[in-house]
Every structure is written in structure tokens, then in C-alpha cells.
Amino acid sequence: MSELMKRFEILCTGKKNTKLNIFNTVVNPGESISLALPLPEILGYAPFYMPVKIIHGKLAGPCLLVFATMRGNEFNGMEIIKRLMKLSTLKKIKGTIIAVPVFNVYGMLNRSKFLPGEGLLEECFPGKESGDYGSRLANLFVREVFSKCDCCVEFCSGRLNYNSLPHVHTDLTYGLNKELAQSFQVPIVTDLKPQSGSIQYEAAQRDKPMLVYQAGEAMRFDYKAINLGVRSTMSLIRKLNMLSTSKNTKESKKTQPVVSTKGDWIYTPQSGLATNYKNLGDKVACGEMISKISEPLGNAQEIIVKAPYEGFITSLNEMPLVYEGEALFKIATFEKDEQIEASVQNWSENQDGTSNSTENESL
After folding, report:
1. What is the pLDDT, as a whole number, of residue 200?
2. Which pTM value belongs to this model?
């Protein structure tokens, strides 16, 4: 039995679940409730509340935290959690799911990744009770929500105007993370070394497995990425033994993620209009033309951008007008190209016919 299964098998004892105490509220086994956590005030007459949904199973099991909108302009994760929590299948779970669809409420209302004072919430952990808004918000989340979970998943998107191939990034030096990442039906897993001040670093300090699912771009819905996020989270829930695999569960050829050994951005050598010749998931050869930068009126020489090494496109700039030094493509490399080619192809095939709705009971 793997280290992961040993840890979470102990939690699934088959015994009745205990009561959950969370921000002065008692949740009984078998209950599903919605809460509003009062957030640190910015102005006394404009209070904010963090929405929290809890499904507390009748039987004991792990506590999984899923959260999104750390950066307020990223909406895919919000939709993933909304759809996930509507699934009637989750009424049968062992353990607990805590869902926070909007972490950075201030940022979401302003459609911005920034907090008051232009700070970034992702750099504020573990926070403290006194200090700036981000520090107080991070402290509240860690104390009241994050401390309750056994493992967690963050949903995020690429930056504004930057589309991202669905992937999981996590600290692969922590063995449980790698095993959990394999349950996500994404083509790529990237190794993330957590920086001090991030919630990933806080998870490592507390010995909590944590995955970050990233797909699509900020300010946009990507329905394929959303549906994939829901399916992958359900796969993770089953991996944690929180839910048994039903005979009616839809069987499909699962994408086996491949670990990336390296990923670097390619930057534009001059300002102008970018004509890209590669899409997300495309393989590029060393020296192959991937983009052409031209002056808007065609008065200057066109600049050809070539791939500096062989790899696969995992992120790209969707903005036609680019400036010198701006990121254009991210190219990831892998030890075995045939494995990532098969993984990307299978992921691509599974997206065919995907609509903007999720089939509840086929998950």
C-alpha cells in the first residue's frame, strides 16, 4: 500500500463522523451548509464576507479543501467549485469537503488580482492578526479554514491574455503530492518549489498535500477547462477513498499526466503585431519558427521568433499587440517526448464535444 493510501485509509474508519466546529458553527454528520465568514474590514460601512460551502459526510474520512479566486480576476475555479458542489453524488462522501469559491472577495468585485494597497494575496501567508489587509485575510483563512483540512486543491488560471494548457503544479519532492497529481486528468504536471509567503509553502510546513490546477486565462470562462477540473476533482475524491466508484460511473480513457523537467518563457525581441504559428499543446523543434513580429504598418523588417529548444507549448500570449521583452510562449520539455505526445493527444481527444454543462451522475 502506498504512503498516500496508508495515510488516508486510516481516516476512513467506517465509523460515524464527528461534529465539525468551524467559525463558531457546529456542523453535524450528514449535514451540508453554506456559511459567510466575516472578512477583515476595509471600511466600516462596507463589510465583506467569504462564501464557504461544507459537505460533512455521515462517515469519517479525510477533509478536502478546494478553493479558488486567490487572484480576483480568475473565474474558472469559481465555476468549477459551483458545479462540483451541485453534484448529488457528494451526499455519499466519507469525510468532509470545504469549498471556498471566492477567496479574494475584494479582488473579485474589482476584477483584479490586487488587494487594497496593490498587494498580492498569494504572497501574504501565513499572515498575522495585525498588519495590512492581505496579512489579516491570509491569517483568517489559515486559522479558520486551512487548518481544518487534510489536503487541498487550489484552482487558478493563466494571467490576463495568457492562455494556459490544463496542468497541475505542485512540489514533487513531497511524495504524496506526486501520487495525488496522477489522479488529475491533465496532460502535464510541473514541479513547483514553493516560495516563502505562499500558501503552498504553508502547506509544506504543515505536512499537507496540496495541488494547484491551472487552466485557461484570467477574465474568461474556459468550459473545457472547467469540466476537466470537475472531473479531475471527482477522480481525486475517489483516490482519497472518500467516495466509492459506482457501477454507473462513466468510463473513459484517462489522460496520464507527464512530469515536465523544465519550462521557460520565450520573450518578444521587439514591439509589434505578433502572428503566432503554434497553439497550446503543439510540439516545436529547436529552431522552428513559432511567431512573426511585424510593425503595424509594415514599414519595418519582420522579426522571426524561433524555438530555442525542443518542447511543447504550455502557455501563450493571446494579445496580438506585444511589446519588446513581453512573454510570448512558454515551452516545457520532457524526458520522453512520446509520452507527452500521447498524453496531449488523449487530452485533446477527450475535449471533443465538450459543452458548457457538466453531466452530474457520469462523474
Report:
1. 96
2. 0.90
